[in-house]
Amino acid sequence: MNEPTLPPAAREAIDAFTGAAGWEQRARLLMQWGERLEPLADSERSDENRVRGCESQVWLIASEHDSRWHFRADSEARLLRGLLAVLLARVDGLDAQALRTVDVAEWFNRLGLGRQLSPSRANGINAVLSRMQALAAR
Amino acid sequence: MNEPTLPPAAREAIDAFTGAAGWEQRARLLMQWGERLEPLADSERSDENRVRGCESQVWLIASEHDSRWHFRADSEARLLRGLLAVLLARVDGLDAQALRTVDVAEWFNRLGLGRQLSPSRANGINAVLSRMQALAAR
Amino acid sequence: MLSSPWRSDFPALAVMEAQGEVYLDSAATAQKPQALISALTGYYTSGAANVHRAQHASAERATRAFEGTRTKLASWLNAAEPTEIIFTRGATEALNLLAYGMEAHIDAGDEIAITALEHHANLLPWQQLAQRRNAHLVVLPLDKAGHIDLEAATQLIGPRTRVLAASQLSNVLGTQQPLHRLLPLAKAQGALTVVDGAQGIVHQRTDVRSLGCDFYVLSSHKLYGPEGVGVLYGRREALARLRHWQFGGEMVQLAEFQHAQFRPAPLGFEAGTPPIAGVIGLGAVLDYLGGLDQAALAAHEHRLHRMLVDGLAMRDGIRLLGRPDCALASFTVEGVHPADLSHLLTEQGVAVRSGTHCAMPLMGRLGVSGAIRASLAFYNDGADLEVFFCALDRALELLR
Amino acid sequence: MLSSPWRSDFPALAVMEAQGEVYLDSAATAQKPQALISALTGYYTSGAANVHRAQHASAERATRAFEGTRTKLASWLNAAEPTEIIFTRGATEALNLLAYGMEAHIDAGDEIAITALEHHANLLPWQQLAQRRNAHLVVLPLDKAGHIDLEAATQLIGPRTRVLAASQLSNVLGTQQPLHRLLPLAKAQGALTVVDGAQGIVHQRTDVRSLGCDFYVLSSHKLYGPEGVGVLYGRREALARLRHWQFGGEMVQLAEFQHAQFRPAPLGFEAGTPPIAGVIGLGAVLDYLGGLDQAALAAHEHRLHRMLVDGLAMRDGIRLLGRPDCALASFTVEGVHPADLSHLLTEQGVAVRSGTHCAMPLMGRLGVSGAIRASLAFYNDGADLEVFFCALDRALELLR
Ligand SMILES: Cc1ncc(COP(=O)(O)O)c(C=O)c1O
Ligand SMILES: Cc1ncc(COP(=O)(O)O)c(C=O)c1O
């Protein structure tokens, strides 16, 4: 990971999560971070914006500005919202090329959230990332 | 097994095979016994008379006389012919009821030929017996 | 404290315990007894071979052991003969085999009846069959407790009903279905009856002849056996009505380039090399299970289940789905997303399942988008449930 | 004396040797390395779980290991991505999946091309598909040595050819097929190409992209892995053309009672609980195989094969079927029924296979009713072949 390019939100995530002791504190932090997600309008929680491959419903909206991608995401599940917020902290504002190569596993591991990055569809962070990459590649 | 009811050919088989030492002698005996099968006419080697479930071709013909069943069988494979002869020695002349209950596994074991009684279709002695029982039950 | 005398027969439980894990997801797949592990090791250590094909010694051993499991299953289910047992990859494949095998008997306008609580495996093959044949899929409704509504079933099963496919025990509701009263309704109309015993067989010995079904399916991996093995029981006359489905290997009687004749069941429906070690392993598991004290086992499972249901009932805001008879309990918590709850249970080492449990349409009918399911096996202890409830309380404290 | 440095990796060989058994039937199924036995034991001892469904720790471990094998297979075959790998029960099921999955692309009068040496598994699914769709099954002939006759193929593959399905290595003749020249003939006509690699993959690392096929199938149990697991590689675009076949479990995206949407490959084609331990075990086998010195292994297999072919050629009255390139040799003996010969080889503890080797129509073309096949693996020794030849001589002495 190229340290200097880390967005401020990502640095903040590192500070917060690497200091967390135990699952309860981690869970509380995730729920707090989940609250920071920009809310989606009801109309945006559409089938079109739904990410396939997550057990819980997740919606994702992407927009591009000056070759940099901005994402908004939401879910009904609170801890999943926290995970989405942590993901966005890392990838928001990247260009398509950086998005393609970002190592999400490494990112979550670094935050002590590696176990949350399920290989199954149970939470679907991987599906969200794939969807981001697909949207940015269009 | 009800000793007194054993047909003479069966007693002869016991004498011959229980004395056999080693696979070579057993094989020679089987080939000799195979020669004793009553030959089938070409017309009798028909699809109709073929026993399904044998890897090698086997034909079987049954006839009934005074409620006793008489069988003739043939195969292209010589050792299999021997096995058929040994089977016939045990079952020829039985009535339908006795045929249904005859314990062929025990018979072959007794002759030291248990291993030849394949659970697979490789030689198909079991298939031959089933066919006999089916013919006698008609 | 309720403790399982069979727990130590399952080596994984000690390993999981040492890692702080509690396994309450046996309805998804069960842990395996040492008897299975030994059988697999024994088989692969003493010489593997393909079955039904060769006559050499290792092939004979393998074939004998493989066919031995068929015989054990026939007696386990009280089938009339071993040839009524077909090995498949799992319950799902068995149900697909049936739906394809019966295709020729379904005409436009015919009806296929299932129930509202079927697992996707016993819904989708019939739904797709109905679509292919322009037939109707009729869904029998449930009562409040989660049992098939027999009055409604009496109305809905009619002269056009060709097939009735129903579960013995719901994998979501834990309800035992009134098959002894349901199946005769279908038989009276001349329909074929299919029982999905994937969950049922794990918690009750089943006699397919007294049940009176035409077909019964189960999955080895839920019955403490290996994955990749399923069983399709078919009454001899019912099997004879199935069209061959998969082709190849030893299922053929006579093959020419442009034409072939196939063997009857069971081999005619077992195309290709079967899961030999798995089938042999399942045989060892049946031997193990058969050696246990069935009454003690049932009593233990019953007590565990009571603890589970009572413990959930004691807690505020928990809604049980249906009224489970045995094996498991599914629930939702007011104001709490099931994914959040299962996330925090996972963090505490408790393995339960959350989601739609492969029964999305049932979830729709129950008006929930997902639920948590805790499911039991006879190797579970009272202590497992204590850990579960303690973790549940802490998780809910955080989430509410 | 040629001795295999890998023999001791396969515990069954020592056990069989102690019982006076020599295994020359690896083309039917291979013996298993300790790496597999350890992987199975390890998996079942540390906590089994169903895959893709739950998020608890054991489910995550199982899913990671299961998906790990998919990734290993993708790189083993040089597929573009792991999603191009579908797990099936075996090669046979993979071929059936293809034949059903392509059904919609076959119209009356279309042609499906196979070769005259196909195993039933790569013949019957296509034959039956042709019958269902009123299409023609075109059989590409062989030359004397047992290779596909490319000139004839050029004539027979035409604009109506929709599918070409061919083996990489014949399980009867041991001949490697000229796929690099055959497949382009089909592609030029826009046909889909299917390679049956059940035997081929065992004796040569295959790069599916340089081979240029659309689909490639193999069976784990022939590649030293467990039975009950098969692999279907499909080029991404080719997979997208397949219709869903088996339904249930986790292959569905959205299920309603009357309607469903399915996932794309690979999961959309893996209905029901897969053979989890088997897949994980296959991964361990790939790791084991990948760690061997490939050149040494190929050289050993080549020397063994030479010994086998030369030894047969030296003996009177033996007719080799085709001119085997590697792996095995099938033969008949003048005036001796193959069943008799294999009977007496069995009596002497030698495991070979006799019969039609699931290729009845090929036997017909060769004008034999059956043959003996001796097949090799890298764990075989020169001593195995000595025992074989000695047993062969004694058997023939008795029979002639
Ligand atoms: C009731 C029921 N039917 C069928 C199945 C499918 O079993 P498998 O995935 O082993 O094929 C399951 C397993 O989840 C089940 O619970
Ligand atoms: C060339 C070939 N294709 C397909 C198969 C079928 O493999 P399986 O029985 O494992 O499905 C075999 C195995 O005998 C084979 O040799």
Which sheet architecture does the biggest sheet of chain A show? 2 strands, antiparallel
- How many domains of chain C? 2
CATH superfamily of the largest domain in chain C: Type I PLP-dependent aspartate aminotransferase-like (Major domain)
Distance between the termini of chain A: 25 Å
Question: Whole-Å distance between the termini of chain C?
Answer: 30 Å
Structural class of chain C: alpha/beta
Number of helices of chain A: 6
In the CATH hierarchy, the third-tier topology of chain A is known as Sufe protein. Chain: A
User: Could you give the order of the helices and strands of chain C?
Assistant: HEHHEHEHEHEHEHHEEHEEHHEEHEEHEH
Mean pLDDT of chain A: 87
- Largest beta sheet: strand ordering of chain A: 1-2
Describe this structure in words.
The complex is a heterotetramer, with two copies of chain A (138 residues) and two copies of chain C (400 residues). The model of chain A has no long low-confidence stretch (mean pLDDT 87). Chain A is mainly alpha-helical. A two-stranded antiparallel sheet of chain A has the order 1-2. In chain A, a hairpin with a 2-residue loop joins β1 and β2. Chain A has six helices and two strands, in the order ααββαααα. Chain A has a single domain, classed as Sufe protein. Chain: A (Alpha-Beta Complex). With 400 residues, chain C is of the alpha/beta class. Chain C folds into two domains: 125 residues, Aspartate Aminotransferase, domain 1, CATH 3.90.1150; 254 residues, 3-Layer(aba) Sandwich (Aspartate Aminotransferase, domain 2). Chain C has 15 helices and 15 strands. In chain C, β9 and β10 form a beta hairpin. Chain C starts with 10 loop residues before the first helix and ends with a helix. The mean pLDDT of chain C is 96. Chains in contact: A-C, A-D, B-C, B-D, C-D. At the C-D interface, α1, α2, α3, α4 and α5 of C face α1, α2, α3, α4 and α5 of D. The complex binds pyridoxal-5'-phosphate (2 copies). One pyridoxal-5'-phosphate (PLP) sits at the interface of chains D and C.
